Automatic annotation (TrEMBL):
Keyword Transport included in the entry's annotation: yes
GO molecular function: ATP binding
Residue ranges of every copy of the ABC transporter domain listed in the record: 8-252
InterPro entries: AAA+_ATPase (IPR003593), ABC_transp_ATP-bind (IPR050319), ABC_transporter-like_ATP-bd (IPR003439), ABC_transporter-like_CS (IPR017871), Oligopep_ABC_C (IPR013563), P-loop_NTPase (IPR027417)
Keywords: ATP-binding, Nucleotide-binding, Transport
Full protein name: ABC transporter ATP-binding protein
UniProt family annotation: Belongs to the ABC transporter superfamily.
Species per Swiss-Prot/TrEMBL record: Streptomyces thermogriseus
Pfam families membership: ABC_tran, oligo_HPY
Gene3D superfamilies, per database record: P-loop containing nucleotide triphosphate hydrolases
Coiled coil regions, renumbered to chain: none
Amino acid sequence: MTDMSQLLRAEGLRVAFPGRNGAPAARAVDGVDLAIRRGEIVALVGESGCGKTTLARSLLGLVRPTAGRVLFDGAPLDYSSRALKAYRKRVQLVLQDPSGSLNPRHTVYDAVAEGLRIHGYGGNERAAVAEALSRAGLRPPERFFLRYPHELSGGQRQRVVIAGALVLEPELLVADEPVASLDASVRGEILALLLRLRTELGLSALVVTHDLGLAWNIADRVAVMYLGRIVETGEVEQVLTAPRHPYTRALLSVLPEAPGDPVVLGGEPPDPSRIPPGCRFHVRCPVLASGEAERAGVARACRSRDPGIPGAGGEAPVACHWAHARADAAPPAS
Protein backbone atom coordinates (compact mmCIF):
# COMPACT_ATOMS: atom_id res chain seq x y z
CA MET A 1 0.00 0.00 0.00
CA THR A 2 1.63 3.24 -1.12
CA ASP A 3 1.52 6.38 1.00
CA MET A 4 -0.33 8.17 -1.82
CA SER A 5 -3.21 5.66 -1.64
CA GLN A 6 -3.68 6.10 2.10
CA LEU A 7 -6.21 8.56 3.45
CA LEU A 8 -5.87 7.74 7.16
CA ARG A 9 -3.09 5.90 8.94
CA ALA A 10 -2.34 5.00 12.54
CA GLU A 11 1.27 4.22 13.43
CA GLY A 12 2.10 2.50 16.71
CA LEU A 13 -0.99 4.02 18.29
CA ARG A 14 -1.40 3.64 22.03
CA VAL A 15 -4.07 5.00 24.37
CA ALA A 16 -3.77 4.35 28.12
CA PHE A 17 -6.09 5.55 30.86
CA PRO A 18 -4.57 6.13 34.31
CA GLY A 19 -5.60 3.69 37.03
CA ARG A 20 -7.11 4.80 40.31
CA ASN A 21 -5.20 4.84 43.59
CA GLY A 22 -1.93 3.82 42.00
CA ALA A 23 -3.38 0.95 39.96
CA PRO A 24 -1.70 0.19 36.60
CA ALA A 25 -2.91 2.14 33.57
CA ALA A 26 -5.52 0.49 31.37
CA ARG A 27 -3.96 0.01 27.93
CA ALA A 28 -7.14 0.35 25.86
CA VAL A 29 -5.21 0.67 22.59
CA ASP A 30 -1.83 -0.98 22.87
CA GLY A 31 0.10 -0.58 19.65
CA VAL A 32 -2.02 -0.38 16.50
CA ASP A 33 -0.94 0.04 12.91
CA LEU A 34 -3.90 0.56 10.60
CA ALA A 35 -4.38 2.24 7.23
CA ILE A 36 -7.48 3.16 5.24
CA ARG A 37 -7.12 3.78 1.53
CA ARG A 38 -9.09 6.32 -0.44
CA GLY A 39 -12.46 4.88 -1.42
CA GLU A 40 -11.99 1.82 0.79
CA ILE A 41 -14.22 0.35 3.50
CA VAL A 42 -12.35 -1.25 6.40
CA ALA A 43 -14.16 -3.25 9.09
CA LEU A 44 -12.72 -3.15 12.62
CA VAL A 45 -14.01 -6.30 14.34
CA GLY A 46 -13.80 -7.64 17.88
CA GLU A 47 -15.62 -8.39 21.12
CA SER A 48 -17.08 -5.67 23.31
CA GLY A 49 -14.34 -4.11 25.42
CA CYS A 50 -11.49 -4.94 23.03
CA GLY A 51 -10.70 -1.26 22.35
CA LYS A 52 -12.50 -0.74 19.03
CA THR A 53 -14.40 2.37 20.07
CA THR A 54 -11.38 3.92 21.82
CA LEU A 55 -9.33 3.35 18.66
CA ALA A 56 -12.08 4.95 16.54
CA ARG A 57 -12.27 7.95 18.90
CA SER A 58 -8.50 8.40 18.76
CA LEU A 59 -8.61 8.32 14.94
CA LEU A 60 -11.25 11.07 15.10
CA GLY A 61 -9.07 13.20 17.38
CA LEU A 62 -11.54 12.85 20.26
CA VAL A 63 -8.96 10.97 22.37
CA ARG A 64 -5.32 12.02 22.22
CA PRO A 65 -2.98 9.02 21.94
CA THR A 66 -0.48 8.26 24.68
CA ALA A 67 2.04 7.25 22.01
CA GLY A 68 2.20 6.83 18.26
CA ARG A 69 0.47 9.09 15.80
CA VAL A 70 -2.45 9.50 13.41
CA LEU A 71 -1.82 10.76 9.88
CA PHE A 72 -4.53 12.09 7.58
CA ASP A 73 -3.79 12.73 3.93
CA GLY A 74 -0.09 12.23 4.75
CA ALA A 75 0.11 14.85 7.53
CA PRO A 76 0.21 14.14 11.29
CA LEU A 77 -2.97 15.09 13.10
CA ASP A 78 -2.79 18.54 14.69
CA TYR A 79 -4.60 18.71 18.04
CA SER A 80 -5.13 22.46 18.14
CA SER A 81 -8.81 23.47 18.32
CA ARG A 82 -8.79 25.11 14.89
CA ALA A 83 -7.06 22.19 13.19
CA LEU A 84 -9.38 19.63 14.81
CA LYS A 85 -12.43 21.59 13.70
CA ALA A 86 -11.18 21.53 10.10
CA TYR A 87 -10.28 17.83 10.42
CA ARG A 88 -13.73 16.86 11.67
CA LYS A 89 -15.29 18.43 8.63
CA ARG A 90 -13.36 15.92 6.54
CA VAL A 91 -13.87 12.96 8.90
CA GLN A 92 -17.37 12.39 10.27
CA LEU A 93 -18.73 10.03 12.92
CA VAL A 94 -21.89 7.94 12.57
CA LEU A 95 -22.96 6.54 15.95
CA GLN A 96 -24.67 3.26 16.81
CA ASP A 97 -27.90 4.56 18.35
CA PRO A 98 -29.69 7.10 16.15
CA SER A 99 -32.20 7.83 18.94
CA GLY A 100 -29.36 8.89 21.22
CA SER A 101 -27.58 10.79 18.44
CA LEU A 102 -30.55 13.02 17.57
CA ASN A 103 -31.89 15.76 19.80
CA PRO A 104 -35.60 14.94 20.27
CA ARG A 105 -36.40 18.69 20.27
CA HIS A 106 -34.75 19.34 16.91
CA THR A 107 -36.45 18.80 13.59
CA VAL A 108 -34.77 16.70 10.93
CA TYR A 109 -33.84 19.90 9.11
CA ASP A 110 -32.10 21.37 12.18
CA ALA A 111 -30.35 18.07 12.95
CA VAL A 112 -28.81 17.90 9.47
CA ALA A 113 -28.07 21.65 9.29
CA GLU A 114 -26.27 21.69 12.66
CA GLY A 115 -22.89 20.78 11.16
CA LEU A 116 -23.21 23.46 8.50
CA ARG A 117 -23.90 26.07 11.18
CA ILE A 118 -21.00 24.93 13.36
CA HIS A 119 -18.59 25.20 10.44
CA GLY A 120 -19.95 28.54 9.18
CA TYR A 121 -21.29 27.29 5.86
CA GLY A 122 -21.79 30.21 3.49
CA GLY A 123 -23.84 28.55 0.76
CA ASN A 124 -27.50 27.67 0.35
CA GLU A 125 -28.25 25.81 3.59
CA ARG A 126 -31.67 24.54 2.50
CA ALA A 127 -30.28 23.09 -0.73
CA ALA A 128 -27.37 21.44 1.11
CA VAL A 129 -29.69 19.83 3.68
CA ALA A 130 -32.05 18.62 0.94
CA GLU A 131 -29.18 17.08 -1.04
CA ALA A 132 -27.78 15.31 2.03
CA LEU A 133 -31.17 13.84 2.95
CA SER A 134 -31.70 12.75 -0.63
CA ARG A 135 -28.28 11.06 -0.76
CA ALA A 136 -29.15 9.28 2.49
CA GLY A 137 -32.28 7.87 0.86
CA LEU A 138 -34.92 10.17 2.39
CA ARG A 139 -36.87 11.36 -0.64
CA PRO A 140 -38.44 13.76 -1.27
CA PRO A 141 -36.28 15.45 1.37
CA GLU A 142 -38.68 18.34 1.97
CA ARG A 143 -41.22 15.86 3.35
CA PHE A 144 -38.86 15.19 6.29
CA PHE A 145 -37.73 18.76 7.08
CA LEU A 146 -40.24 19.45 9.87
CA ARG A 147 -40.45 15.96 11.32
CA TYR A 148 -39.05 15.07 14.74
CA PRO A 149 -37.05 11.93 15.56
CA HIS A 150 -39.98 10.24 17.34
CA GLU A 151 -42.00 10.47 14.12
CA LEU A 152 -39.46 8.38 12.20
CA SER A 153 -38.67 4.68 12.04
CA GLY A 154 -35.32 3.41 13.29
CA GLY A 155 -33.99 3.12 9.75
CA GLN A 156 -35.13 6.64 8.91
CA ARG A 157 -33.43 8.00 12.04
CA GLN A 158 -30.18 6.31 11.05
CA ARG A 159 -30.48 7.84 7.58
CA VAL A 160 -30.89 11.28 9.20
CA VAL A 161 -27.69 10.69 11.20
CA ILE A 162 -25.89 9.69 7.99
CA ALA A 163 -27.28 12.77 6.22
CA GLY A 164 -25.93 14.94 9.05
CA ALA A 165 -22.48 13.51 8.33
CA LEU A 166 -22.80 13.77 4.55
CA VAL A 167 -23.88 17.42 4.57
CA LEU A 168 -20.29 18.48 5.26
CA GLU A 169 -19.02 16.47 2.27
CA PRO A 170 -16.48 14.43 4.29
CA GLU A 171 -13.84 12.16 2.82
CA LEU A 172 -14.10 9.51 5.54
CA LEU A 173 -16.95 8.15 7.67
CA VAL A 174 -16.27 6.39 10.97
CA ALA A 175 -19.36 4.29 11.63
CA ASP A 176 -19.53 2.77 15.12
CA GLU A 177 -21.88 -0.26 15.01
CA PRO A 178 -24.06 1.56 12.42
CA VAL A 179 -26.76 -1.13 12.21
CA ALA A 180 -26.57 -2.82 15.62
CA SER A 181 -29.78 -1.21 16.91
CA LEU A 182 -31.80 -1.81 13.72
CA ASP A 183 -34.16 -4.60 12.71
CA ALA A 184 -32.72 -7.22 10.40
CA SER A 185 -34.95 -6.02 7.56
CA VAL A 186 -33.46 -2.51 7.76
CA ARG A 187 -29.81 -3.51 8.28
CA GLY A 188 -29.35 -4.49 4.64
CA GLU A 189 -30.77 -1.17 3.46
CA ILE A 190 -28.29 0.84 5.54
CA LEU A 191 -25.36 -1.34 4.46
CA ALA A 192 -26.41 -0.94 0.82
CA LEU A 193 -26.57 2.82 1.39
CA LEU A 194 -22.99 2.91 2.70
CA LEU A 195 -21.79 0.93 -0.31
CA ARG A 196 -23.65 3.25 -2.67
CA LEU A 197 -22.12 6.33 -1.02
CA ARG A 198 -18.66 4.83 -1.52
CA THR A 199 -19.41 4.28 -5.21
CA GLU A 200 -21.06 7.66 -5.85
CA LEU A 201 -18.92 9.92 -3.66
CA GLY A 202 -15.66 8.01 -3.35
CA LEU A 203 -16.07 7.96 0.43
CA SER A 204 -13.78 5.92 2.63
CA ALA A 205 -15.21 4.30 5.75
CA LEU A 206 -14.10 2.61 8.94
CA VAL A 207 -16.96 0.41 10.15
CA VAL A 208 -16.60 -0.65 13.79
CA THR A 209 -18.53 -3.85 14.52
CA HIS A 210 -18.61 -7.06 16.54
CA ASP A 211 -20.27 -8.82 13.58
CA LEU A 212 -18.02 -10.61 11.11
CA GLY A 213 -21.06 -11.29 8.92
CA LEU A 214 -21.49 -7.53 8.50
CA ALA A 215 -17.79 -7.21 7.65
CA TRP A 216 -18.20 -9.84 4.93
CA ASN A 217 -21.09 -7.93 3.36
CA ILE A 218 -19.59 -4.45 3.32
CA ALA A 219 -15.81 -4.35 3.78
CA ASP A 220 -12.85 -4.48 1.42
CA ARG A 221 -10.46 -5.24 4.26
CA VAL A 222 -10.93 -6.38 7.84
CA ALA A 223 -8.87 -5.80 10.99
CA VAL A 224 -9.59 -8.11 13.93
CA MET A 225 -8.92 -6.55 17.33
CA TYR A 226 -8.32 -8.25 20.67
CA LEU A 227 -7.36 -6.62 23.96
CA GLY A 228 -6.16 -3.35 22.48
CA ARG A 229 -4.28 -4.72 19.50
CA ILE A 230 -5.07 -5.82 15.95
CA VAL A 231 -4.25 -9.52 15.77
CA GLU A 232 -5.13 -10.23 12.13
CA THR A 233 -5.66 -8.04 9.09
CA GLY A 234 -6.07 -8.48 5.37
CA GLU A 235 -8.49 -8.54 2.45
CA VAL A 236 -11.91 -9.55 3.71
CA GLU A 237 -12.18 -12.69 1.53
CA GLN A 238 -8.73 -13.82 2.64
CA VAL A 239 -9.32 -13.32 6.36
CA LEU A 240 -12.87 -14.65 6.50
CA THR A 241 -12.43 -17.69 4.25
CA ALA A 242 -8.99 -18.72 5.56
CA PRO A 243 -8.56 -17.16 9.03
CA ARG A 244 -5.13 -17.70 10.53
CA HIS A 245 -5.53 -16.42 14.10
CA PRO A 246 -7.39 -18.68 16.56
CA TYR A 247 -9.38 -15.67 17.79
CA THR A 248 -10.62 -14.90 14.27
CA ARG A 249 -11.54 -18.56 13.84
CA ALA A 250 -13.55 -18.48 17.06
CA LEU A 251 -15.43 -15.33 16.00
CA LEU A 252 -16.25 -16.90 12.63
CA SER A 253 -17.37 -20.20 14.13
CA VAL A 254 -20.46 -18.67 15.73
CA LEU A 255 -21.90 -17.35 12.46
CA PRO A 256 -25.05 -19.27 11.46
CA GLU A 257 -23.56 -20.42 8.14
CA ALA A 258 -20.22 -21.52 9.65
CA PRO A 259 -19.38 -25.24 9.29
CA GLY A 260 -18.73 -27.36 12.37
CA ASP A 261 -19.41 -26.56 16.00
CA PRO A 262 -18.98 -23.08 17.49
CA VAL A 263 -15.69 -22.48 19.31
CA VAL A 264 -16.50 -21.41 22.88
CA LEU A 265 -13.77 -19.24 24.36
CA GLY A 266 -13.19 -19.71 28.06
CA GLY A 267 -13.55 -16.77 30.43
CA GLU A 268 -13.63 -13.08 29.68
CA PRO A 269 -10.96 -10.97 27.96
CA PRO A 270 -8.26 -10.05 30.50
CA ASP A 271 -8.22 -6.68 32.23
CA PRO A 272 -6.44 -4.15 29.92
CA SER A 273 -4.47 -2.94 32.95
CA ARG A 274 -3.07 -6.48 33.40
CA ILE A 275 -2.29 -7.73 29.91
CA PRO A 276 -0.76 -11.23 30.02
CA PRO A 277 2.85 -11.78 28.93
CA GLY A 278 3.55 -13.36 25.58
CA CYS A 279 0.58 -13.56 23.22
CA ARG A 280 -2.23 -11.63 24.88
CA PHE A 281 -4.74 -14.24 23.69
CA HIS A 282 -2.91 -17.28 25.11
CA VAL A 283 -4.98 -17.53 28.32
CA ARG A 284 -8.13 -18.18 26.21
CA CYS A 285 -6.55 -19.79 23.14
CA PRO A 286 -8.14 -23.11 22.12
CA VAL A 287 -5.05 -23.99 20.06
CA LEU A 288 -2.84 -23.75 23.16
CA ALA A 289 -5.41 -25.53 25.36
CA SER A 290 -5.75 -28.42 22.89
CA GLY A 291 -2.02 -29.09 22.69
CA GLU A 292 -1.72 -28.05 19.04
CA ALA A 293 0.67 -25.22 19.92
CA GLU A 294 2.82 -27.68 21.89
CA ARG A 295 2.95 -30.07 18.93
CA ALA A 296 3.97 -27.16 16.69
CA GLY A 297 6.78 -26.29 19.13
CA VAL A 298 5.50 -22.80 19.97
CA ALA A 299 3.68 -23.25 23.31
CA ARG A 300 6.49 -21.64 25.30
CA ALA A 301 6.66 -18.71 22.88
CA CYS A 302 2.87 -18.26 23.14
CA ARG A 303 3.18 -17.85 26.91
CA SER A 304 6.32 -15.70 26.99
CA ARG A 305 7.03 -13.86 23.71
CA ASP A 306 4.95 -11.08 22.15
CA PRO A 307 4.14 -12.06 18.54
CA GLY A 308 4.32 -8.40 17.45
CA ILE A 309 2.03 -5.94 15.70
CA PRO A 310 0.67 -6.81 12.25
CA GLY A 311 1.76 -4.13 9.79
CA ALA A 312 -0.75 -1.78 8.17
CA GLY A 313 0.85 -2.44 4.80
CA GLY A 314 0.17 -6.16 4.91
CA GLU A 315 3.49 -7.32 6.41
CA ALA A 316 3.09 -10.11 9.02
CA PRO A 317 -0.72 -9.92 8.77
CA VAL A 318 -1.30 -12.12 11.84
CA ALA A 319 0.02 -11.85 15.41
CA CYS A 320 0.20 -15.57 16.24
CA HIS A 321 3.22 -17.84 16.81
CA TRP A 322 1.19 -20.93 15.87
CA ALA A 323 0.02 -19.39 12.57
CA HIS A 324 3.61 -18.44 11.71
CA ALA A 325 4.82 -21.97 12.52
CA ARG A 326 2.14 -23.48 10.28
CA ALA A 327 3.07 -21.11 7.45
CA ASP A 328 6.75 -21.99 7.80
CA ALA A 329 5.95 -25.73 7.78
CA ALA A 330 3.66 -25.55 4.73
CA PRO A 331 5.19 -26.80 1.46
CA PRO A 332 5.98 -24.05 -1.03
CA ALA A 333 3.34 -23.40 -3.69
CA SER A 334 4.16 -25.02 -7.01
